[in-house]
Structures are given as C-alpha cells and as structure tokens.
Amino acid sequence: MSFMRPEAAEGLRRWREVLIAVLMTALGLHWLLTSFGIFKALGALITILGVVWIVLSVRRARFDRGGGGAGVVTVDEGRVAYFGPETGGTLAIAGLVSIRMVVNDDGSKNWYLLAQDTTPLDIPVNAEGADALFDVFSNLPSLDMKVVQAALDQPLAEDVLLWHVEMRKLH
Predict the structure, then answer these.
(1) Cα 81 versus chain centre, distance
(2) Which of 27, 86, 99, 117 is the 20 to 30 A CA-CA neighbour of 4?
(3) CA–CA gap between residue 18 and residue 30 (Å, rounded)
C-alpha cells in the first residue's frame, strides 16, 4: 500500500538528485551565514559545490524520460547495450561516430546511435535505463547538451543529427 500517487512518486524519483543538492546547498548556506571560522569557510565551499550540483542534476533530471518504453538500456565498461522486444545489440562508446534523434510515424522519438564496425542501435528515449545515456553523451567531445535537450523537449517534424565525427580509418 502506497501513500503516494504513482505519478507523484515518479516525479520525486526523477527529481530526487535535485532535491538532495538543494538540501546540501541550504546546509552550506546556513553554515556560511550563521557560523564563524572553519565552519564559515566549509559552508562557503559546500554552497558553491551545491550550486554546481544543482545545475548538473537539473540537466540530468530534464534528460530522464521516466522509463516505461520498449526495451532496456545498460551502460557498462565502455559499452552501450540495448535489449528490445524486436531488436537490440551493443556498441563501444569509443567507436561512436553519430547520434541522431529519429522521429517515428506515431511521433515518438528514438536515439539512433551509430558506431564504427557495428550494427546501429535504435533506442526509444523512454526505454528503461535510457537516462544512463546522459553520462555517455555528456562525455563526447563537442556535443552540445543544450541541443540534445532541445531535441528531447520540442516536437520534431524530421530526424535531427545531434553529433557526428568522421569515421576512423584503420589503415
């Protein structure tokens, strides 16, 4: 028996990191304003770190689409794996050459990840565990996360190329 509506519990789960960061920042601000000596300096440090954490956790929470979609995504040891009802596979993060946001006929969106020498992955944005792709994408060189977030938030009429690098030559 739950005392919360499922939607409210999901919202708290999605924004829990932001809430923790806000509490940490409030503690640091309290120490900064009411203490002296080492605790005042520690409060200033905690406040600065808390503000940075709030910014990063808000980005991560906005990226999360809540799960419930087809398939499961895992990121482990430099590989992205997707196990869906009809397709699936794995690819090496180091081999990624292209990321697209693909719009399906019904308006739903998929991540289309292409890596060198592997089968591409077509991952629904709301697949279970797809929020782990935030860390993968944020570590790619020259990928603008604001563009990625805009592609997630706005309705798209056509596919969007979010990131691309040239194929690596083997010889």
Answers:
(1) 15
(2) 27
(3) 18
Closest CA to 72 of 132, 16, 7: 132
Q: Can you read off the two tokens belonging to residue 127? A: 């697949």
Spatial CB neighbours of 32, under 8 Å, sequence gap ≥ 6: 40, 43, 44, 46, 47
CA distance 11 to 22: 16
pLDDT digits (tens, 9 = 90+) for 71-114: 899 999 889 999 988 888 889 888 889 999 898 888 888 889 99
| pTM as predicted | 0.71
Backbone angle region of 84, left / alpha / beta, with phi > 0 → left and psi within -120 to 50 → alpha: beta
Local confidence band at 40 (pLDDT 50, 70, 90 cut-offs): very high
Counted residue by residue, the chain has a size of 171
Residue 144's φ and ψ, nearest 5 degrees, are -85, 110
Q: What is the DSSP letter of 93?
A: G
